[in-house]
């Protein structure tokens, strides 16, 4: 049983980031053509485009501000291919602190890049999926949305708002054979950790049932599964990929 995305085009927002690059390569290895969204790192986008093309897949790099609906619509217009899979991975980075100390603009940035990004992408790409009677919307959430630890408030607020959008959207578009799901990574090992030799963190790992941090490839594998027809009857799901560190209840 193989994950086969041949004939599909996948858009990944924030594709030049640590996790985005691995997801782009993974979906390409499964046969998908890739739309590489970037906000400011044009050089990394061009490099990733070359990598995807070396895998034998088509790749297209496009700049957009995912917090601006007009910019997202321009991105849609720039994409020549039909988009079958949308992975909402981009998020604004900021410094975490307590609710009392967190600047108000950080709450706005998380709302814009988590909630409004999800709405913008749905409005731009779901109508085409409805017309084709097929689509995959996949949001990258976080285990933090269930942890609610000190310092996480702006990030948690944005991601929990995103969760609401995705659950409602799943119910609204399911009749069109469109699935809407979320992958919730834990504290993930990326190339930055490998370069800095920071893969291990015992204080975090001891609380994880599998006693380790997950890898970027393991997150990308879950995204590829949800993007495939193997997951055709899964929608509205929040899927933690974190070794059991958080467990949704029934």
Automatic annotation (TrEMBL):
One of its GO terms (molecular function) is oxidoreductase activity. Keywords: Oxidoreductase. InterPro entries: NAD(P)-bd_dom_sf, SDR_fam. It holds the Pfam family adh_short_C2. SUPFAM superfamilies: NAD(P)-binding Rossmann-fold domains (SSF51735). It comes from the Bacteria. PANTHER family: OXIDOREDUCTASE, SHORT-CHAIN DEHYDROGENASE/REDUCTASE FAMILY (AFU_ORTHOLOGUE AFUA_5G02870), SHORT-CHAIN DEHYDROGENASE_REDUCTASE FAMILY PROTEIN. Belongs to the short-chain dehydrogenases/reductases (SDR) family. This is SDR family oxidoreductase. It comes from Paenibacillus antri.
């Amino acid at each position: 049983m193989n994950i086969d995305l041949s004939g599909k085009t996948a858009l990944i927002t924030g594709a030049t980031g640590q996790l985005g690059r691995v997801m782009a390569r993974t979906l390409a290895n499964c046969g998908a053509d890739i739309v590489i969204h970037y906000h400011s790192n044009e050089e990394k986008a061009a490099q990733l485009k070359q990598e995807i093309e070396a895998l034998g897949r088509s790749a297209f790099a496009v700049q957009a501000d995912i917090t601006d609906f007009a910019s997202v619509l321009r991105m849609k217009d720039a994409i020549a291919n039909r988009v079958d899979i949308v992975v909402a991975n981009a998020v604004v980075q900021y410094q975490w602190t307590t609710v009392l100390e967190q600047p108000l603009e950080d709450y706005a940035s998380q709302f814009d890049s988590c909630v409004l990004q999800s709405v913008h992408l749905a409005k731009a790409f779901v109508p085409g999926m409805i017309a084709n009677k097929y689509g995959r919307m996949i949001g990258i959430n976080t285990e933090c949305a269930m942890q609610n630890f000190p310092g996480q408030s702006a990030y948690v607020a944005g991601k929990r708002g995103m969760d609401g959008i995705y659950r409602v959207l799943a119910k609204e578009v399911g009749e069109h054979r469109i699935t809407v799901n979320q992958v919730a990574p834990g504290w993930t090992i990326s190339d930055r950790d490998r370069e800095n030799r920071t893969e291990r963190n015992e204080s975090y790992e001891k609380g994880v049932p599998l006693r380790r941090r997950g890898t970027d490839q393991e997150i990308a594998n879950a995204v590829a599964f949800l993007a495939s027809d193997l997951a055709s009857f899964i929608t509205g799901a929040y899927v933690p990929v974190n070794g059991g560190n958080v467990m949704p209840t029934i």
